[in-house]
Amino acid sequence: MFSTVNRVFLTLLLAFLIGFSSHSVALSPALFKVEKAGVTSYLFGTVHVGDKSMDGLPKKITQAIEQTDEVIVEVNIEALNAFEIQKRSIPFMTLPQGRTLKDEISAEHFEALKQYFAAKQINIALFENLAPWAVMVTMMQIEYQNLGYLEDYGIDKQVIAHAKKHNKPIGELETLEQQLEMLSSLGVKSDLMISTTLAQLKDVEQYFLDLVNAWKKGDMDTLNKYYQLSFDDSDYGKFSEEVMLTQRNNNWVEQLTPRLTKESLFIAVGALHLPEKHGLITQLKAQGFNVTRL
């Protein structure tokens, strides 16, 4: 079983960024209808990377996109070129001048990272100016790419592509800088994240199998279970939930509430933003919206 910090980091630090899927499970994720004042919108939980089995949105999703006035995503990365993303990300991912990765973590964990990258024929010197959280993200990217999981099959990317195809405006709930600031703030326990991540990387695919299969089947009970597993009552568990989900969900609901009574929106955000008491489903219901599973 993953430690709390590792579960939070791998599952929720990236807002359900990393998805591993089974070819045997048909793609039928949950879609919710949001209604108030005679206006109908849709809420869809996504994963941001996937494999070939996730290529192609289900018909109910494409139809919902086509019926709405605008598609809303967390951040529309597709609107930015690689150079612009890099330029805006570097200030958050790099350490202050005069400091290196070796200064930010214990000697033991630096050596463990050195061995990890050496086994993959990568020189750790490439990362000496990166913040520890950025190194962790890089490690996870290496792992899922080696297993054949790509952003090209990510559901967000497919939603945006379908919206563009049908000339739908694409709105954002936050900026790239806001997401990077959030990720940066989770680096307060870098040594613990490194140790648990290194220990569990070999089990990543198995851990995510049930989680993403649950997403593919629209199994909200299992998604709720993984949410609860990912956040316990430890200081770090509470902190991560507050930073990763509660604050962001609150901000999103504040933005969305006035619009949802005037415009038909298709809202696509990371799947674990939907469940539990701070999730979008519960918060929208509390604002008087009728939220029903389709």
From TrEMBL:
Source taxonomy: Bacteria, Pseudomonadati, Pseudomonadota, Gammaproteobacteria, Alteromonadales
Name of the protein in its database record: TraB/GumN family protein
Highest taxon of the lineage: Bacteria
InterPro entries noted in UniProt: TraB/PrgY/GumN_fam (IPR002816), YbaP-like (IPR047111)
Pfam families tied to this protein: TraB_PrgY_gumN
Species in which this protein is naturally found: Pseudoalteromonas phenolica
Signal peptide: none
Chain segments annotated as coiled-coil in the UniProt record: none
